[in-house]
Design brief:
Blueprint: H1 13-25, E1 35-43, E2 49-60, E3 63-74, H2 83-87, E4 91-99, E5 102-111, E6 114-123, H3 125-133, H4 141-149, H5 154-162, H6 170-178, H7 183-191, H8 199-207, H9 212-219, H10 228-236, H11 241-250, H12 256-264, H13 269-278, H14 284-292, H15 297-307, H16 312-320
Antiparallel strand pairs: 1-2, 1-6, 2-3, 4-5, 5-6
Helix pairs in contact: 4-6, 5-7, 6-8, 8-10, 9-11, 11-13, 12-14, 13-15
């Protein structure tokens, strides 16, 4: 599914706030009620897709600002342009782009697959009312237009609203949708006690491949639930859930940072377990030092047989001098 290019979207929040304040004191149509601006489209190289840019700016009652969004879509998503019009050298056009959050209405000219003109947006009143009932605090026409551009569906918004994870703004809803953070994904983390995760944290978890199943596996023997940042770091370093469980069984005191360091230095749960079996119940730093110096559980066993109970540092010294 093609998504709007988030980096191309510019919102001027102070201008919006000033405009709303002015409109409250001056009843009548406002930019919240009539959302319009300019459009520009250009066909892709293969002729099947196109780039759409919407732009609007305003300067009224002491308020000024601008808004621009560029996104990709297929020609079939525009209702009202014929194949002949796409090929015409210069032809007037009027067409629509319908989404669940509302419909964009366009008029202007096409010239050999490129076009420009003016647009207006008509929000879907039922969808808007549903979002307001769900507790979203910024459901104006501009917000509905952004939902439409990002293809946010009613079912998607409804399922997120049913989860225990409260989203208070359309920005959060759009961000989750744009990064394919599904209601099931959110509900899965909610069920593990992660209801307080922000939209940014949910996006990071999704982007790094951290699933609710992964988090469930990590937390099964941990005694405390890892934070979202810890989940991301463990996954990013390739630490799988069974490694964490094995480490926790062998050395329950280990923290997430220590598990990551052990994994990075090639210290496995089996290595820690083997040394523990010889009598070395070690901290993470000690395990790493022994591993770096190539000391095996067999080395430790031989050293104890010859020299009795000796510390980890003495093992390293003996190994360095070829004594074990």
């Amino acid at each position: 599914m093609r998504r709007p290019r988030l980096g191309m979207v510019l919102m001027v929040g102070l201008a919006i706030l000033a405009s709303r304040t002015a409109n409250a004191a001056n009843p009548g149509p406002s930019k919240e009620d009539v959302f319009w601006g300019d459009w520009r489209i250009e066909l892709d190289g293969d002729g099947r897709g196109l780039d759409m840019t919407l732009h609007r700016s305003w300067h009224r009652d002491g308020s000024q600002g601008s808004w621009t969004s560029t996104f990709d879509l297929g020609r079939e998503e525009l209702d009202g342009i014929t194949p002949e019009q796409w090929k015409a050298r210069d032809v007037p056009v009027a067409f629509d782009m319908k989404r669940e959050a509302g419909s964009f209405h366009f008029q202007g000219h096409l010239r050999l697959g490129r076009g420009s003109g003016e647009f207006s947006f008509e929000p879907d009143p039922g969808f808007r009312a549903e979002l307001e009932r769900a507790g979203y605090d910024d459901v104006d026409t501009e917000g509905m237009a952004r939902l439409a551009m990002h293809r946010v569906s009613r079912a998607w918004a409804r399922d997120l609203a049913r989860s225990r994870h409260h989203l208070g703004s359309l920005d959060e809803l759009i961000r989750l949708t744009a990064h394919d953070v599904s209601p099931d994904f959110v509900a899965g983390f909610d069920a593990l006690g992660y209801e307080a995760l922000s939209a940014d944290e949910l996006v990071r978890l999704k982007a790094h491949g951290v699933t609710p199943e992964y988090a469930r596996g990590l937390g099964s023997l941990s005694g405390s639930r890892p934070t979202a940042d810890e989940l991301v770091r463990l996954k990013a370093h390739g630490v799988e859930a069974d490694n964490v469980r094995d480490f926790r069984e062998t050395t329950p005191r280990l923290q997430v940072d220590e598990i990551i360091r052990l994994h990075a230095h090639g210290v496995t749960p089996a290595y820690a377990r083997a040394l523990k079996g010889v009598g070395y119940d070690l901290e993470a730093d000690q395990l790493i030092r022994l591993k770096v110096h190539g000391i095996t559980a067999d080395d430790a066993r031989k050293a104890r047989q010859r020299h009795g109970s000796i510390e980890a540092d003495e093992l390293i010294r003996l190994k360095a001098h070829g004594a074990i």
